[in-house]
Amino acid sequence: MALKLYGYWRSTASYRVRIALNLKQLEYEYVPVHLVKDGGEQHQVNYTRLNPSALVPTLIDENEDIVLNQSLSIIEYLDERYPQGCMLLPEDPVERARVRALAQDIACDIQPLGNLRIMQALEAEFGIAKPKQLEWAALWIRTGFDALEKRLVNQSGKYCFDFTVSLADTCLVPQAYNAKRFGIDLSQYPQINKIVNNCEQLPAFIAARPENQSDAPA
Ligand SMILES: N[C@@H](CCC(=O)N[C@@H](CS)C(=O)NCC(=O)O)C(=O)O
């Protein structure tokens, strides 16, 4: 298969790309990288050779002989290189900017703060124990979602952007999954909750769910 995705079942950044690949109706080989086992396979040399950041996802496209990191760049690449399936960014420049901003509200301003390596450093470097780490992660998700909820009340339709699934939804659904892991009640965010529920009816989102991946625990 020409497309190969290195990811982890519970990684929200990998989850974004899985949703996008499914929405684009692209077949791909999924290569699990266990983020915890043996100190994390993302740190092993055979992986860091592909992605020196030691983060998932990484996408290989043999059609172009390229290796890409950063989920948002990967998704935009797939959208431009493979016009089949849904188009994940609107054509209008203002609308594109709005969709990208929603995606970055999540991928730049929420997810990085609760990433595994951040939690590990809070403990190893700063002596912050697990319960406080969980509070830290939940704080930044709530801060981000409080703002996102207001924005979506003004901008969204059935999905984050109007009535078409977009890059923004590929970010929102994984982040909502992650929020639940950190004990956040999504009913406080009716607009986010509604959009997530609408997305979760779609086969592309169902197939991408963490529990439906080959590396998810049985
Ligand atoms: N900005 C990157 C973030 C990638 C990222 O943070 N990946 C996480 C999983 S969601 C990871 O690999 N964490 C491993 C670690 O922290 O050691 C992207 O969007 O691809």
Could you explain how this protein is built, in words?
The protein folds into two domains: 3-86, 3-Layer(aba) Sandwich (Glutaredoxin); 93-204, Glutathione S-transferase Yfyf (Class Pi), Chain A, domain 2 (Up-down Bundle). The chain is an alpha+beta fold and 218 residues long. It is built from nine helices and four strands, in the order E-H-E-H-E-E-H-H-H-H-H-H-H. 35% of the residues are buried. Strands 2-1-3-4 form a four-stranded mixed sheet, with helices on one face. The protein has helices spanning 12-23, 45-48, 71-81, 93-107, 116-124, 130-155, 167-181, 190-199, 203-208; strands at 3-7, 29-32, 58-61, 66-69. The two termini are 26 Å apart. A hairpin with a 4-residue loop joins strand 3 and strand 4 (66-69). Glutathione (GSH) is lined by residues 11-13, 35, 40, 42, 55-57, 70-72, 107, 115-117.
Percent of residues in β-strands = 5-15%
Strand numbers in spatial order across the main sheet: 2-1-3-4
The quaternary structure here is single chain
Element-by-element helix/strand order: EHEHEEHHHHHHH
Let me know the average pLDDT.
Answer: 97
Please report the first level of CATH classification, the CATH class of the largest domain: Mainly Alpha
Number of contiguous helices: 9
Q: Biggest β-sheet, characterized? A: 4 strands, mixed
What is the overall silhouette? globular
Q: Residue ranges: pLDDT <50 for 5 or more in a row?
A: none
Radius of gyration: 17 Å
**Distinct ligands, ions and cofactors found in the model:** glutathione
Q: What level of helicity do the residues show?
A: 40-55%
CATH architecture of the largest domain: Up-down Bundle
CATH topology of the largest domain: Glutathione S-transferase Yfyf (Class Pi), Chain A, domain 2
Write down the domain tally: 2
Quote the distance from N terminus to C terminus: 26 Å
Count of β-strands: 4
Structural class: alpha+beta
